[in-house]
């Protein structure tokens, strides 16, 4: 005999749902739209992480407690479940804390994906949301789904935009939207070499921004970001500019506290001039690696290093 959960008072239902593990919450949400609404209203804010991966021929949804290490769990075999008239192959971890749902199709992929995404993003809208768009996803579809998330006020933590090709207009729209809604962004798209972005007044203020092909980047537009990863093609920066940038970091004139920059134009012999005036500490050297510890005005200990063509700034934990 099943337990008549939906006949309980609303407050009692919410307490029962809060006591469920991720698997139990997920399965209960599939029972009906009313059950999904119960789950949506009962989950504590930011207690779960919901990850959505969009592919050429399908959609992957992963749900887990915030901070859960999904790589370290044992997964049970796939089971088919149905929602929004779509059958999904679903797997659970043995502990019941991790859920993975996969749907693939050959026709009306975007329409089916849209329905599933709307269903799961609404049900778990108090979770920290992550969206990944793999190559082969339509750029128009990707922009549509990100706008849906922002317009509904869902807490979108990060977007991974991994389309190989997209228009400069789509990249500009992503930059502006992510900056406005405090969403971290990672871009692996190649856009034309003469493309430029137009920053908002005061520049961009990302917590984290990664750009694989950074030939269009004007670094001055991004100095109020916290973490930057510009991997390839960053326009040549002079030794004088880099020294001035690091002095701004020391004097808290910009927010940067973590970066990796492609510096193939910089020679190893330039490193002493890059770090001139930062610290009285001696430059450390280990083979091709050179580094210097220094302190920001607020006391934060940082380490800047040059190795294999990359200039790296990170917090010094030693």
UniProtKB/TrEMBL annotation:
Top-rank taxon: Eukaryota
Classification via Pfam families: F-box (PF00646)
InterPro entries linked to this entry: F-box_dom (IPR001810), Zygotic_Embryogenesis-Asso (IPR053222)
UniProt cross-references to PROSITE patterns, sorted A to Z: FBOX
Domain F-box: 2-57
Signal peptide start and end residues: none
PANTHER family: CYCLIN-RELATED F-BOX FAMILY (PTHR22899), F-BOX ASSOCIATED DOMAIN-CONTAINING PROTEIN-RELATED (PTHR22899:SF0)
Descriptive protein name: F-box domain-containing protein
Organism (species): Caenorhabditis brenneri
């Amino acid at each position: 005999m099943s337990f008549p959960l939906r006949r309980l008072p609303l407050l009692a239902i919410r307490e029962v749902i809060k006591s469920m593990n991720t698997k139990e919450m997920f399965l209960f949400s599939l029972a009906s739209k009313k059950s999904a609404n119960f789950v949506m209203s009962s989950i504590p804010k930011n207690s779960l992480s919901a990850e959505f991966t969009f592919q050429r021929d399908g959609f992957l949804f992963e749900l887990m407690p915030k901070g859960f290490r999904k790589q370290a769990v044992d997964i049970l075999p796939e089971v088919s479940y149905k929602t929004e008239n779509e059958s999904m192959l679903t797997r659970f971890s043995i502990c019941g804390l991790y859920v993975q749902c996969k749907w693939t199709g050959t026709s009306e992929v975007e329409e089916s994906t849209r329905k599933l995404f709307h269903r799961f993003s609404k049900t778990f809208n108090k979770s920290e949301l992550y969206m990944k768009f793999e190559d082969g996803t339509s750029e128009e579809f990707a922009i549509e789904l990100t706008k849906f998330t922002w317009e509904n006020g869902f807490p979108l933590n990060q977007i991974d935009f991994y389309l190989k090709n997209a228009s400069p207009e789509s990249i500009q729209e992503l930059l502006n939207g992510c900056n406005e809604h405090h969403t971290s962004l990672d871009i692996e798209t190649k856009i034309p070499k003469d493309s430029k972005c137009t920053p908002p007044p005061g520049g961009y203020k990302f917590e984290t921004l990664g750009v694989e092909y950074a030939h269009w980047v004007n670094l001055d537009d991004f100095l109020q970001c916290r973490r930057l990863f510009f991997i390839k093609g960053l326009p040549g920066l002079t030794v004088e500019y880099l020294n001035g940038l690091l002095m701004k970091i020391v004097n808290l004139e910009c927010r940067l506290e973590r970066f990796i920059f492609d510096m193939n134009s910089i020679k190893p012999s330039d490193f002493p001039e890059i770090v001139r005036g930062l610290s009285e500490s001696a430059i450390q050297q280990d083979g091709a690696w050179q580094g210097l510890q220094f302190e920001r005005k607020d006391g934060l200990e940082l380490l800047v290093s040059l190795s294999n063509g990359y200039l790296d700034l990170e917090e010094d934990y030693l």
